[in-house]
Task: inverse folding
């Protein structure tokens, strides 16, 4: 399976999604796009899953972008109005969901960047909330060097996540930056040793999953929704989002658990 979803026993309520094409730098070909889209739908629909972790297999690449032998030629042929293979068409149909550009995961996503994140690989990473990178990882948006427009998250989210000048440098030069610089400009949370990058991401996912799931989901949604709003509108909207949580069963359970000196038992309601 080129994209695997696992539910690790030692990490309750956490889904681990692995891009599993190390021989092709974990690039996204049509079958991978279909399976990755299916994995994200499972994460979004399964109430037992409270957080997801995304990584790549091997130590060379997190994701090298779209597969230059299959996905890119199929996409270009389709843009020219040509008929393409049915399997390739299904992969392109799954693209927006697989890359989380037109699909709301609803749960926080943590990335374990085990190697190079290039083009759509970096772009997919931008959909995550938290990111850890191995020291040898590099990051590049290479679309302009291939005559393409980065139609995923990069031109929408990158300048909202890091400084304007750094975003423009990545977008317009197509030159890679190393992990240390990615940390300095705020593209990743931290650089950690390669052998513990996945462990670090899973530990963060565990911390997220231990919190009230509805509160986590609504907080994630609120941050994304409020970011582009005028201040007065944002303050009013956050009250609209927060008010139902104060009356939730989980909020009442948190108070009881604190009083009784025990861990809370979340219902997600």
Result:
């Amino acid at each position: 399976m080129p994209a695997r979803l696992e539910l690790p026993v030692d990490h309750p309520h956490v889904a681990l999604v692995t891009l599993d094409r190390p021989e092709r730098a974990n690039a996204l070909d049509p079958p991978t796009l279909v399976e990755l889209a299916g994995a994200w739908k499972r994460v979004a629909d399964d109430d037992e899953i409270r957080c997801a972790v995304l990584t790549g297999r091997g130590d060379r690449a997190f994701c090298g972008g779209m597969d230059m032998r299959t996905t890119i030629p199929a996409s270009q042929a389709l843009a020219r109005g040509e008929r393409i293979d049915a399997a390739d068409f299904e992969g392109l149909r799954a693209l927006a969901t697989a890359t989380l550009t037109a699909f709301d995961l609803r749960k926080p996503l943590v990335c374990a960047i085990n190697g190079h994140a290039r083009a759509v690989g970096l772009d997919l990473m931008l959909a995550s909330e938290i990111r850890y990178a191995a020291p040898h990882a590099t990051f590049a948006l290479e679309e302009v060097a291939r005559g393409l427009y980065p139609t995923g998250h990069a031109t929408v989210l990158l300048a909202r996540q890091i400084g304007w000048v750094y975003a423009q440098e990545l977008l317009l030069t197509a030159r890679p930056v190393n992990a240390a610089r990615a940390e300095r400009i705020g593209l990743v949370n931290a650089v950690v040793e390669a052998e513990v990058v996945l462990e670090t991401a899973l530990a963060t996912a565990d911390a997220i999953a231990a919190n009230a799931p509805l509160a986590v989901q609504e907080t994630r949604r609120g941050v994304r929704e409020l970011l582009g709003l005028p201040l007065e509108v944002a303050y009013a909207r956050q009250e609209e989002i927060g008010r139902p949580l104060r009356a939730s069963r989980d909020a009442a359970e948190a108070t009881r658990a604190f009083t009784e000196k025990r861990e809370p038992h979340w219902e997600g309601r």
About this structure: The radius of gyration is 19 Å. Residues 213-260 form a domain with the Lyase 2-enoyl-coa Hydratase; Chain  A, domain 2 fold (CATH 1.10.12). The chain has two domains: 3-209, 213-260. The chain has twelve helices and ten strands.
